[in-house]
Amino acid sequence: MTALEKVLDALREAGHPVTRSGDGWRSTCPAHDGENRTALAIDPGRDGVLMFCHADITCKPEVIARALGLTVRDLFDQPKTGDPRRAELVATYDYVDENGELLYQVCRYSPKTFRQRRPDGPGRWTWSVKGVRQILYRLPAVLQAAAAGQTVYVVEGEKDVHAVEKAGAVATCNAGGAGKWRAKYAGPLTGAHVVIVADKDAPGRTHARQVKASLDGRAASVRVVQAVVGKDVADHLAAGRTLDELAPLDDGQAVPDEQDTPGARRVRSQPLTQITRRRRQYLWEHRLPLGEVTLWVGHAGIGKSQAAVWLAARVSRGELPGELYGTPTPVLYLGTEDSWEYTLAPRFDAAGADSERVFRLYVENEHGDEEIVSLAVDLDTLREEIRATGARLVVLDALLSTFGSAKLTEQGTVRRHLEPLARLAQELGIAVVGVAHFRKASDSNPLHMIAGSSEFGQVVRSAIGFAPDKDADDGSCILSLIKTNLAPSSLPSLRYIVEPCGVQTDEGLTDVGRFVLLGETEQSIEDVLNREHTTAEQRSEVEQAAEWLLSFLESQKDGWEAPRAEVVKAAGKEGFTLPTLNRAKVRAKVRHKSGGFPKTTIWIHPEFATDSDDAQSSHPRETTAETTGGETTGDDWTDQQKQPDEESSAPQSSQRHVSETTEGASDGPTGEPITHSDKCAVPDCPAAPRRSCWTCADHMAREDEFTEAA
Q1: Which residues contact 23 (CB under 8 A, 6 or more apart)?
Q2: Do 63 and 175 fall within a single domain?
Q3: Adjacent-strand bridge partners of 500
Q4: Of the residues 198, 609, 679, 705, which has the fewest C-beta atoms closer than 10 A?
Q5: Are residues 480 and 452 in the same domain?
Q6: What letter does residue 342 receive in the DSSP assignment?
Q7: Of 33-47, 215-229, 454-468, 678-692, where does mean pLDDT reach its minimum?
């Protein structure tokens, strides 16, 4: 596993959304509050992974790694030969004034980056346009067309301008695309017949509103149109359409802001007699409903993505048991976490997919660069793409990538994103699969383990979980329904493996994983998680300390026994507290003996203890220890009195004072049975004020030394 893969997996398992950004990734910074979903930049480096936190420039990679449970060593790979990939300049767009003088350039790079620069002497550039006059692209042509009362197309990007010019018309745009329009840009368009071409997304429609508002009273006429095919005018023209075929948007009026029309909303009611009853249909019989969003959730590396590829491949071939069995059907697949060239396309080949029916899903922005689909702004164009391709399955891998900069910590964020998607699925009769991750924390309920927000488990009507079966000899895993409001709850789980498979690529043979179903199983994902969760709970700190204690005594050269002081010191180095160690002694049934001057206590492995061990001195505190079934010195006496172990041989009183003593227990100096209050935090000698008994003080002094050493 590469350093980059380690970091990405650690982020996902910790519940931090990871999204593609050019050749790298963006996520929340685990060393901060997680509010900024793009604060942390993760990029591949020549020798490992590069991380930079934009929220706090003092946040160092080692701090980020530590927050993820990684070390600095985990951030590095073996050194590789060759130079790291550099951004390549692919196009320059000259912004010249009315006299043809170059004021500045917009430079487009691959991977996607846009920078602006201004000339600074012959052959030199300054990478800043601060203080430079901002103008429209192709300004001389715009002024000439406006003076002649001709038509000028206002588009979002330079690429669109060139496409319109190639079609024989005059076009312009502002630098920076949508949201960067200035009121002064309307001046050169005075007298022109302006056609505003809105990109088919929310920013594009907002941009069109801004442009139209600035042109009112200046332009001879203003129309707002949009592409019939694709997202923008470049797509429209590339598809063979003409400028005359651009579709009017709202009859040439400004694009309406839905939130500005409260009068269109009205609460209504409908009798059940008017509601058509329909039969629930399944893309995958009883497991994957049509018209719904289904979560596909499990830990990283469990095979969720391979399973999604297998599913899409079966649908493309018409081989999935369900409504579309026997009918090869198109699929839209959004893959944000793996390379299409190196991973996803070869996986589809290994799965036997029909490559003509599997479509890579992505967004192209106004500059012609690719972005990730955003559920907040791209549902309209997603609907059009689904209709255009005839897809009945849409896979979003990973689902969190489509949430953009939304704050999952805010109540209702998941609902605001998933409910419109569910309505789209119902409207078009498609199945949507959203691939999500389990967080690291263990829980017996898989719906509580979904990373990001607990709302995921509440909003979706169907969810399929993936988990490894550590008891399986063949290394297989289990998938099963973990939530369904639609299918029979008795549906059996399925067992699967991900096996290596060789695939022929354009550059030779490569190995990928292939998802293979093995059949039904009586086990469920809940069974697997419950088993793991129970094991984690039952293996308490006391039990761990008991195991360590026995092992420590077994390692002693002097006959499986050791002085108590050495045991306490070694336990402190292992991170066990004194109360935990004392309870572990009882749990492990370790015996002890005391003697000599100064008195020394020896702890003995139970298999080598004799009947004479556990002998008590005549000191009242130590005599009372017989009632607890073990040796007590210092604070551990109170700990055992307050938290008796179930394996202790003597009964414990639930009252405030211990008034029962075993046979042979000596009385105190007053002749009364020895009693101690549970309230005592330190030993209290019945014969004298606290800390005045030399024996008690001796023990307390030794335990104070242990506390300081720890």
Answers
A1: 43, 44, 85, 111
A2: no
A3: 513
A4: 679
A5: yes
A6: I
A7: 678-692
Would you list the DSSP string of 29-77?
Answer: -TTS-S--TTSEEEEE-SSBEEEEESS-TT--HHHHHHHTT--GGGGB-
> What's the CA gap between 668 and 670, in Å, rounded?
5
Alpha carbons 552 and 556: distance in angstroms, whole number: 7
> What amino acid occupies position 343?
T
Q: Hey, which bits of 367-524 come out as E strands?
A: 370-371, 393-397, 431-437, 462-468, 477-484, 493-505, 508-521
Query: 691 in a domain, yes or no?
Result: yes
Q: How many independent structural domains does the chain possess?
A: 4
Q: Of 514, 533, 552, which marks where a domain is finished?
A: 533
pLDDT digits 0-9 by tens, 400-429: 888 877 776 677 788 888 888 999 999 999
What are the tokens at 374? Answer: 């955003």
The answer to whether residue 528 sits within a structural domain is yes
At a CB cut-off of 8 Å and minimum separation 6, what does 647 contact?
586, 587, 589
Beta-bridged to residue 53, according to DSSP, are 40
Give the list of residues 6+ apart from residue 539 with CB closer than 8 angstroms, or none: none
pLDDT at 324: 92
Q: Is the predicted pLDDT of residue 671 greater than 80, yes or no?
A: no
Token pair in block for residue 284 = 């995958």
Sheet of 18-21, strand order: 18-21, 24-27, 40-44, 49-53
> What pLDDT does residue 313 have?
96
Q: Are residues 156 and 71 in the same domain?
A: no
The reply to whether 477 and 587 lie within a common domain is: no
Q: Which residue has the higher pLDDT, 141 or 622?
A: 141
Read off the tokens for 678. 């549970």
DSSP label at 242? Answer: -
CATH of the domain at 148: 3.40.1360.10
User: Are residues 380 and 351 both part of a single domain?
Assistant: yes
Tell me, yes or no, whether 264 lies in a domain.
no
CA atoms within 13 A on the CB side of 49: 27
Question: Could you please report the per-residue DSSP string of 398-414?
Answer: SGGGGGTT--TTSTTHH
Residue 153 tokens, joined: 């197309």
Angle at 376 between CA 375 and CA 379, to 5 degrees: 55
Residue 365: which of 153, 137, 90, 158 has the closest Cα? 158
Task: Specify which residues 564 forms β-bridges with.
Answer: none
Domain membership of residue 524 as a residue range: 282-533
Q: Which helix (H) or strand (E) holds 283?
A: strand 282-284
> pTM surpassing 0.85?
no
Q: Is the dihedral of CA 692, 696, 698, 700 positive or negative?
A: negative
Contact between residue 588 and residue 550 where contact means Cβ atoms under 8 Å apart: yes
Same domain, 319 and 464: yes
Helix (H) or strand (E) run with residue 429 in it: none
Together in a domain, 238 and 331: no
Residues β-bridged to residue 462: 294, 484
Rg for the chain (alpha carbons), in Å?
A: 36
Q: Shortest CA distance to 234 belongs to which of 178, 288, 302, 165?
A: 165
Could you tell me if 243 and 303 lie in one domain? no
Determine if residue 629 is left, alpha or beta; phi over 0 gives left, psi from -120 to 50 gives alpha, anything else beta: left
Confirm whether 620 is domain-assigned. Answer: yes
3-state DSSP of 517-547:
EEEEECCCHHHHHHHHHHHHHHCCHHHHHHH
How much is the average pLDDT of 262-290? 81
**Residue positions counted in the chain:** 710
